[in-house]
Amino acid sequence: MVRATVRWLASSAALLVVVTALTFVLTSIAPGDAATAILSSQSGSYTPEQVERMRHLLGEDQPLWARYGAWLADLARGSLGTDLFSGQPVTEIIAARLLPSMSLVVGTVLVATLVGTWLGAVSARRGGFVGRLVDVVSLLGFAVPSFWLALVLIELFAVRWRLFPPGGYVDPRDDLGGWLATMTLPVVTLSAGAIAFIAKQTRDAMSDVLAQEYITMLRARGLSERSIVYKHALRNAAIPVVTMLGLTLVSLLSGAVVIEGIFFIPGLGERAVVATGDHNLPVITGIAFCFTLVVVTTNLIVDLAYRALNPRVRHS
Amino acid sequence: MKRLGLSPTGLVAAGFLLVVLLASLGAPLLAPYDPEQQDLTAALAGPSAEHWLGTDRLGRDVLSRLMYGGHVTFIAVAEAVAVYVVLGAGLGILAGYLGGWVDRLINGISDLLLALPGIIILLMVLAVFPNNGAATMAALGAMTSPVLLRVTRGVTLAVREELYVRAARLSGLTAGRIMVRHILPRLAGPITVQVFLFAATAVLVQSSLSFLGLATPETVGPSWGNMVAHAAAVTSQDLWLAVPTGGILVLTVLALGLLGDAARARPARRAAPTRAYRPVVPAVTSSPPAVPGPATVNGAAPLLSVRGLTIAVPGPDGPVTVVRDVDFDVAAGECVGLIGESGSGKTMIARSLLGLLPAGGAVTAGHALFRDRSGSTTVDLARLGEREFAAIRGRRIGLVSQEPSSSLDPSFRVGSQLAEVIRRHEPMSRRQARARVLELLATVRLADPERVARQYPHELSGGMAQRVSIALALAGNPALLVADEPTTALDVTVQAEILDLLRDLQARLGMAVLLVTHDWGVLADLGERAVVVYAGQVVEQASVDDIYRDPRHPYTRRLLEANPHRAPVGQGLPTIGGVVPSPTVWWPGCRFEPRCPDATPRCVAGPVPLEPVGGEVGGSANRLVRCVRAEELVRR
């Protein structure tokens, strides 16, 4: 257990350093820079002297390693820098936007896991027609782009039938019902692909498990089909599926970036897209850092779940 | 096309992609309109003869724009795929072939890449190179390459240990040449699968970014992604525009995904898993007339009476009969051994009694009459459906299998598995079940039942696991225990203990045992009667004593001579030349004839019946032999 913890800490730290350092390197070789972006946002024209002065103020005339070092030093003090344009601390931006993004991503993981494992288990058990149906649904879920699905769902369920709001976000602490209503369409949109993926993974894992000798032996001992499939086989098939859930969550973070804007969800992804447009390095780096934290936390949870599910690992 | 091994679906997908590809690359020549040509009078017109797929808000022809947009997509995908293959396959081969620190380094980097939040990296690349599709797609290819890398590495690891590659290495070929000449060709299949799946992802990512306006915004020219963005702006006026723009994306990704699946699914691999465990519904077609069986112990009706049992399993060219016309009886409390070489069909016979034939296998003829608990009525095991077997499995017939470690569910504690079976057969409280668990574990002579109940299967030794497996089979108090090679996978000393336990249980519980084995020692230890099976037929049936003393069938005799327990010390162990004939080539005559030293032309003239033969002095009279020379070949 100690070794596993150390290994997790080491790999997490490595990942965080790689992501943030990469952000610095990439942004520093960008053709445009923040200084000109800020100046042009404040006034249409500016002189080269103004640019130089702005660069100095921003610390952009420092060598890259010095700037990264300064950023790490800030991090040690709990600061992720400030938004170049508004001067707002990045930690505040992230704090305000974390809940909307996580509502979307975690909600999707829950929905997709429930529906996906159910579909996968049922199709592995039935084979034949239901199996092929799940195959088709999986392929469609994979093939339908989320942004297109979003626009169709908004048009049908929000504009025409007025069942759900077309977008926006309500804080669950203010209005739980409103939060659920605003989250429904985005979660459904983002779930489609994840459900397809999880259903396929579950189906493959279940097919493997159901072909095992111990399943035949459970049957020989007279256990009910229900117990064999949904207790024994599903429990064993969950082991490989759980490891895939980590990857699913990482890809959902990407998915959230694409659809947050469509649904007017004030999340991290939407902010990252805007920050990308105007070279807002502290914001991009901060969000990248935050996403990476989510990823490493997910990896930890997946690892713990894997241990909990797999007695062979737990006891060794 | 058969040569490519493509299914009809794969063929349609390939055809569709080809058309889209040609239309996109040939857009300047083929497109009916200039993609930027506006006609505000015909804005948002639906499909018509002039505009097959209608027009957009500015009256531009949607079909033409889709064709030009496809151009952008395919170039982007080609770039991404190129980077993906070069990095993924290249590093994968290196890691797999060279191993050592190279492998560890490459693996470390690929783990790291896989954990990156991909879109953030792409956004950063886009921030650095605004609107630079090539850089973005290269980044996408690089970030996703670990997926291909893992596949490639796995295949390479397997291939490098194969004989011909080792031979190439020994003959002095350089590592580089081996990788290119011998390993790369084997990778073609797996790489193709991954490339199609990745290409599908690349299409989606490229159009997502374009939809967001981060790559190929509409001002630059049409792309599939920005056309959806355009459609999104006008959905309330016209939902039609979303159909062709989304449709082309869905269909293209779908086609790539299907091709990936088609490339993965070589016919053989596909069929198996989905049906792998489908319950078998016996399809009994004919029932042969009841054959007079050997008289049973005490003359009472036997517990189990198998008559004319015939079993078929699916083969490449239709069903193959693997067991034909098998007759035998098991009396209550009796131990009958089913003995034969591997491939003789003995396991099939045993499993058919529990309705647990492998995928697609079925009893095609015959009966297996099994006496009810009351003893007054019988059920025909050869005709039971899944539902009726519920009353039999575990409750009337228990099964112990060969591999104790793989016969227990690895995820549940021994106690929980036992308790579930106990409560399934006899409803009782958890507390009562718990007591019964400990009692059963003690019955199979496990030293510390409390401890074993808390353990997981992987914590048990083979012998302990087999005892647990026996306890599980006993949980429902079955009248018949089918023991399928119960000691084959165990150490010799443990074998003796398990046999001892089985003998003791049989005596104590008055349980009949059908022992499936290839080992005369095991049979001699436990069995009272032996049923010798060869190539799906019973060739001889007699008491174990008679068989040992006076085997009548030439096959039985050879099998006994090949028994290490009986071989004279200091001499080589005799073997039976040749192999058991495959079920696909069975002929009507004696199936042992090609391997039989005593064969005569009469042996292959026609079917040889299983007939009673007279016993020698002192032997029991109830013997059946399937040999035309049974009487003349009495052992001298």
SSE layout:
The complex is a heterodimer of chains A (316) and B (636).
Chain A: H1 2-28, H2 34-42, H3 48-58, H4 64-76, H5 90-126, H6 128-143, H7 146-160, H8 176-210, H9 213-220, H10 225-262, H11 268-277, H12 281-309, H13 311-314
Chain B: H1 8-25, H2 27-30, H3 62-98, H4 100-115, H5 118-128, H6 133-160, H7 163-170, H8 175-211, H9 224-233, H10 242-264, H11 267-275, E1 304-315, E2 318-330, E3 335-339, H12 346-352, E4 362-371, E5 378-380, H13 386-389, E6 397-400, H14 414-425, H15 430-443, H16 449-454, H17 462-474, E7 480-484, H18 492-509, E8 512-517, H19 520-526, E9 529-534, E10 537-543, H20 544-549, H21 554-561, E11 611-613, E12 623-625
Parallel strand pairs in B: 3-8, 3-9, 6-7, 7-8
Antiparallel strand pairs in B: 1-2, 1-4, 4-5, 9-10, 10-12, 11-12
Helix pairs in contact in B: 1-3, 1-10, 3-4, 3-6, 3-8, 4-6, 5-6, 6-8, 8-9, 8-10, 9-10, 14-15, 17-18
Could you tell me which chain pair has the largest interface and how many residues each side has?
A-B, 85 and 82 residues
H-E string of chain A: HHHHHHHHHHHHH
The strand line-up of the biggest sheet of chain B is 6-7-8-3-9-10-12-11
Shape of chain B: elongated
N-to-C span of chain A: 10 Å
**Number of helices, counting only DSSP H or I runs of 4 residues or more of chain B:** 21
Nearest-integer average pLDDT of chain B: 85
Strand content of chain B: 5-15%
What Rg of chain A is obtained from the alpha carbons, in whole angstroms? Answer: 24 Å
Task: Tell me the fraction of residues in β-strands of chain A, as a range.
Answer: under 5%
Contiguous runs where pLDDT drops below 50 for at least 5 residues of chain B? 267-298
Q: Give the oligomer, counting copies of the same chain as homo and different chains as hetero.
A: heterodimer
Bulk shape of chain A: globular
Decide which structural class fits the backbone of chain B: alpha/beta
Mean pLDDT score of chain A: 87
Secondary structure: number of strands of chain A: 0
Low-confidence stretches of chain A: none
Tally of strands of chain B: 12
Q: How much helical structure, as a percent, in the residues of chain A?
A: over 70%
